[in-house]
Amino acid sequence: MERHREMEAVAEGLWGLAEEHEQRGDVAAAVKCLEAIVQSHVSFLPIVEVKTRLRIASLLLSHSHNLSHAKSHLERSVVGAIPPQKQIVNKALELVSSSGDGYPAKLWSCNFNSQLACALMIEGDYRNSISALENGYVCATDILHPELQWDDENSVERAAERCNEVWELIQPDQKASQHVERLDAAMKDDLQRDGEWLPKSAVFALIDLMAVIVGRPKGVFKEGVRRLQSGLHVIEEELAKLGIREGMRESDIQRSDIWTAGVYLMLLMHFLENKVTIELTRSEFVEAQKMKDWYVRFPTMLQGCDCVIEMLRGHYAHSLACFDEATFHFIEASKVHGNFYNLKKKFMLTESRSIQSMCHVYAAVSYICIGDVESSSKAMDLVGPVYKIMDSFVGVREKTCVIFSYGLLLTKQHNLQEARRNFANGLRVAHQQLGNIQLVSQYLTILGALALALHDTVQAGEILRSSLTLAKTLYDVPTQVWVLSVFGDLYREMNEKANELENSEYERKKEDDLQKRLSDAQSTVWHLELVDKVRIEAQPPHVMDLKRATAGPSKVDLDIPESIGLPNQPPAPLSRLREVDYGRSGKRKL
């Protein structure tokens, strides 16, 4: 008893000395006085140690950034609660071990072993603490849960560095197909592995979407349409389960469903976006209106999609030869994305510049199609700066689009030889690095027209035949009409009357088909609303503070043929620029 009084007197002396140091502003000395108590080889009463550790933690939190030491002292101050805690955790581990070897049991075992290890570390029982961690590690390995398996921070850092190295080695355009195929195979096998980074149905829909994106430029239409229908069906079913139906708005969604709903809504926008880009070649545009309606109803959760919608409105307008309206929507898309980027700039780097540049390029092509001197000047103002910085873009798709539009300007300026070299370079990139046969078809068509303008009829015929074959494979009616028009000029140049007559009849048939589709589109109730030179606006709800359920804007990656308002009389080959698909991977996403 006497000894405890002596130790208490020592503690009070050190407390007093620490207080004096603190009053003089020497916090480090105050902490050292207090640590002398808790680090002493002589035992103090538990209450003395608890009070001392609480005082140390208070000083560290108030006068330093040493949160880890403060946390350690706070943990040690509750050492009196450790024995009952260990008893409860051990009971829990016994219960888990008797419940089987399933995924939930092993996950709970990881949790309880982690808690037991923490309790043992606070007591200083490091040997048994390591043993508990090893048991948890075994369970984490069994359930394939890498987040629970990291040994230390260095392991995480090394793994992240290795992931970055591997990622840099993957060429996104050339190597995407094999990775999508592997994902597809995994989906079909339906591997029974628990744990989700996305809801399972969302993963399956995402794989369908990726298969469409990879297959569309290669002309895989039938499978692409099937995948789109499959993915849309899955998404609509999941949204229905969440109670999201026609007429519902985001203010009606339960808070607990916001994240899941956001995942499916963003996937839905991607599916509709890709469906629009397929249908632009067929002149069916109902999905563009659906995207607009969804955005108006869920503006907060689909934040960032307004840029994509404005771009698609521009493509729609261009497809119907409403070139002035098309330029408006492309420029607005650039402004919208710029505003979004300014709000989220720390999350978006070069992607924003690429997307804005593509908006300018698309607007430039629409200006070129208008055809007057002022519009051509505006097109040069838009394309020129982008052409100078295109090597800084992330992907080659953007570059091929810029090359194409710049070549159109060279053609417009009658610089045919330079335009020919420019298009040949773009064709090589599109064929070798992208494997995009739709874009290849567009390049071949313009190269055939240039060859004819330079009176190289033999090469023009060979190129145009290849282009027409690809356009038929892709069911790209606008490009077929364009190629047939150039063929007509070729046959007249070669004075082949029979071929010219046969070609003219086939061209007229295709053009009538296209004009009927365009007329049908113009007669729909939503046509004027889509082309109207008014930016889409949606007011977010004030009923509740919805948080965004998605990480960023939709990644614009389309390859759309922005064909095509056809005049009554077939124009000269180089004047049919409005029929050009300045195909980018930036445009038809597929």
Report what the structure shows.
One of its GO terms (cellular component) is nucleus. Keywords: Cell cycle, Cell division, Chromosome partition, Mitosis, Nucleus. It is found in: Nucleus. Residues 558-590 are annotated as: Disordered. With 590 residues, the protein is an all-alpha fold. The chain folds into 3 domains: 2-77, Serine Threonine Protein Phosphatase 5, Tetratricopeptide repeat (Alpha Horseshoe), CATH 1.25.40; 81-159, no CATH class; 186-579, Tetratricopeptide repeat domain (Serine Threonine Protein Phosphatase 5, Tetratricopeptide repeat, Alpha Horseshoe), CATH 1.25.40.10. It is 70% helix and 0% strand. The protein contains 24 helices and no strands. It has helices spanning 2-23, 27-38, 46-63, 67-77, 82-97, 103-123, 126-142, 153-169, 176-189, 200-215, 221-241, 258-279, 286-297, 305-319, 323-344, 350-370, 373-389, 396-412, 416-434, 437-453, 457-473, 477-493, 497-522, 527-531. Helix 11 runs antiparallel to helix 12, helix 18 packs antiparallel against helix 19 and helix 20 (437-453) packs antiparallel against helix 21 (457-473). The radius of gyration is 33 Å and the shape is elongated. It starts with a helix and ends in a 59-residue tail after the last helix. The model is unreliable at 341-350 and 542-590 (pLDDT under 50).
Which labels suit this protein?
590 residues, 3 domains, disordered C terminus, mainly alpha, Serine Threonine Protein Phosphatase 5, Tetratricopeptide repeat, single chain
